[in-house]
Protein: ABC transporter substrate-binding protein
Amino acid sequence: MRTIKKVLAATAAVATLVSIAACGSSSDSNANKGDADKAELVFWGWDSGNSMKDIIAKFEKANPGITVKFNNTGTAEKTSTALSNAIAAGNGAPDVVMLEDPTVTQFAVTDGLVDLSEFGADKLADDFAAGPWNKLQYNNKPYALPIDSGPEMFFYNKAVFDRAGVDGESIKTWDDYYEAAKKIRATGSYITNLAGTSNDYQPFTAQIWQAGAQPWKVDGEKITINMTKDEGMQRYIKFVQKLIDEDLVDTKTPNWSDDWNRELNDGTIASLTIGAWMPINLMTGAPDQAGNWRVAQLPQWEEGQEVSAEDGGSALSVVKLSKNQAAAYKFVEYMTHGDGAQTMADTGTFPSLKKILTSDSFTDPTTEANKKTNNYFGGQNVNEVLSEAAQRPTEKFQYLPYNPFAQSSYGDEVSKAYTGEITLEQALENYGKKLAEQGEQQGYTVTVK
Structure:
């Protein structure tokens, strides 16, 4: 196997994680499967729903020979950095790791994760929503199981839309969206914001994914970058450039900024295309708009289509260095496919497991959690709409094996199109060249089209 250059971040936090986890790993790259019923596992991840303690206790009760030590790594970025360092060092890695979906490929390509088809995970494909499942494949084999799902949705402020004379439910295509954008802009608001920062990277990948684009392809040691000539990319570029040129989108306000929340809260930004996990963020970030927001399916490029895409998501993998792979997989399966998946859904994680997505309890408008959300959305049964989106078909979409770099560098190049310095096509062409340079530095053979 070829050698990939590793980026080592020698921080105190990473060093602490590695030292804590040392008992759970081995430097032997050919570590055996171990005893599926007896092990001391180390698990790295984050705990946004404050549910890990409960889930682990229930797992250990059901599997008395296995203990799980959870190290809360805080963020996805810190987790992936720590894992890179541990793998490069050949020791100190956990048995189980939580990763953002797009980074799974990065570690699969460099042989840091276990091919879970060795444990029969490939037989579980039909049990999960297609979007998150497809993101976790490398060479058509699963290297992680999805924790959650993030189908791209169309959230809109009905009060602002009504004022502009736009029926949000009638927006079925991106052409409909463009016509609505003009009417909304005439009222002084914007249909949405697009600033081209690194925080826009995930929505960007979701939108080009839905457009059928393949801006990069990974084939072993070979990568092809095609940011502007790919048919789906051309479709996306032409549409977004039109929105920029006609001042139909707010190009000054980046996602997740204080100004972004303020403009969502005062109606300046009238809609978002973003992941299904967004309701709680609207409820906390735009409280003054309670009762006004609604959610609908993503507009389509062709009328009558029902194509979805994913924005965000996380997953669990078994680390190749682990000497407890069989027991580690048992824990991964419990968390994502077993009883643990329900506990996570009950504490706010948007599920990827079909049996939860289609369950009466998930869409029941009388549950306390659903009532709170539905009230904010004017009485709409939000989970019913989100569940439908999660089950829509998605095409397979690859991420680069150095996805963190792709995300961090996205804003450096693409933001220039939103400030008017260059066109979006020029910005994406420059971005493609930067991605190619990084790939070559990592040891890949890169072709740019």
Summary: The chain has 19 helices and 13 strands. Residues 1-31 have pLDDT under 50 and may be disordered. The chain has two domains: 39-150+312-358, 153-309+398-448.
